[in-house]
């Protein structure tokens, strides 16, 4: 197995740069190219996961205030054709119900109306997976025919045996509930699971691009 630093997609994510924060769909960057969104409860380790992918400690800042949480944050990957998107965290935010409802509407508008969105990374604390919020996100994505990859974060909190048992349990529950999604273990602290996550991102971001055919091959195909 190659070192995570050599994985082509992780080389790409290591070049991630903050682009903009959008309070609504209307403020999002142009809907072109491809992007992958990250969603999860406020304490699921979403920011830590994005920072691990980017090899940067403060790219996605874990916020303790509702003001930051309600924004949709965009990160460029090398050029303007590929992006990672940090969606508003859900759950635990101690804010008024009408503000929560507004966040949910923005989230729904993004998931349903963003043409460049190729897939959803759904982050769940391995000790508390598939909450009502998580299942709501899965239902949203499935209604839009959007592929989902579940990342069980904080896997370092469990020994390997229990972690693998939790992984299998989530797979069984997803199947029983009729949700189609892939699942993996992840630890930002141990930097484990990066290559597997990189493989999934590569599929959705069309990266790395297929190698160019030599001139002779083009001539034969003509």
Features:
disordered N terminus, 7 strands, 222 residues, alpha/beta
Written description of the protein model:
This protein has 222 residues and is of the alpha/beta class. It contains eight helices and seven strands. The chain has a seven-stranded mixed beta sheet with strand order 1-3-4-2-5-6-7, with helices on both faces. β3 and β4 form a beta hairpin. The longest helix has 18 residues, at 160-177. The N and C termini lie far apart (38 Å). Mean pLDDT is 87; it is low at 1-5.
List the helices and strands and how they pair.
Layout: H1 8-13, E1 16-22, E2 34-40, H2 46-54, H3 66-69, E3 72-77, E4 79-86, H4 97-113, E5 117-125, H5 132-143, E6 148-153, H6 160-177, E7 182-185, H7 194-205, H8 215-221
Parallel strand pairs: 2-4, 2-5, 5-6, 6-7
Antiparallel strand pairs: 1-3, 3-4
The tally of strands reads 7
Strand ordering within the main sheet? 1-3-4-2-5-6-7
Low-confidence stretches: 1-5
Strand content: 15-25%
- Share of helix, binned: 25-40%
**Outline type:** globular
Write down the oligomeric state.
single chain
Largest sheet: number of strands, sense, barrel closure:
7 strands, mixed
Structural class: alpha/beta
What is the averaged pLDDT score?
A: 87
Helix count from the secondary structure assignment: 8
Order of helices and strands: HEEHHEEHEHEHEHH
Rg is 18 Å
First-to-last CA distance: 38 Å
